[in-house]
TrEMBL record:
Region (Disordered): 105-145
Membrane topology listed for this record: Multi-pass membrane protein
The protein, known as: Uncharacterized protein
Superkingdom per UniProt: Bacteria
UniProt entry keywords in alphabetical sequence: Antibiotic resistance, Membrane, Transmembrane, Transmembrane helix
Localization, UniProt: Membrane
Organism: Streptomyces pilosus
Length: 145
């Protein structure tokens, strides 16, 4: 390679890093503030613009970070499609599975034989039963579970 090729890699690396950072931050922010929030939309637009600038830079430079023609090859497109579908199915299963497990009848029973009252461990179940559950004088009640 010719001299100075490392200096020509930095603009492409900076563009793709900035675009990816803006896109990730936009996705995180959209979950909290909404997809149509002005800042989220501006970040998405900035990410698209930075990716477009990266593609333009890669086509123009003599020492590109990657050959963009690889992204158009059928095996690469098929692999990206499979990875995208598998990721969507996995995230969907985790997301919907958590709702299912929260609402299932067995989620109320922890499997320890006890029942969940929402009270801290060792707290009396009803008011006025603290004396009854404390046991003999001088001993502290202990919760096992």
């Amino acid at each position: 390679m010719e001299r100075g090729w490392k200096r020509r890699l930095w603009p492409g690396a900076a563009l793709v890093a900035a675009a990816t950072g803006a896109l990730i931050y936009a996705l995180i922010r959209a979950g909290d503030h909404g997809w149509l929030n002005t800042v989220s939309l501006v970040l998405c637009a900035a990410a698209v613009a930075a990716y477009a600038a990266f593609v333009a830079w890669q086509r123009r430079t003599s020492a590109p970070l990657m050959d963009l023609r690889l992204l158009g090859r059928q095996p690469v497109v098929a692999g990206l499609f499979v990875i995208t579908v598998a990721t969507a199915l996995m995230v969907g299963a985790f997301f919907l599975g958590s709702f299912y497990l929260q609402n299932s009848p067995r989620s109320q029973d922890s499997g320890s034989g006890g029942r969940s009252t929402g009270a801290p461990a060792g707290a009396p179940e009803r008011p006025g039963t603290a004396e009854q559950s404390a046991g003999p004088p001088g001993r502290c009640p202990v919760a096992w579970g």
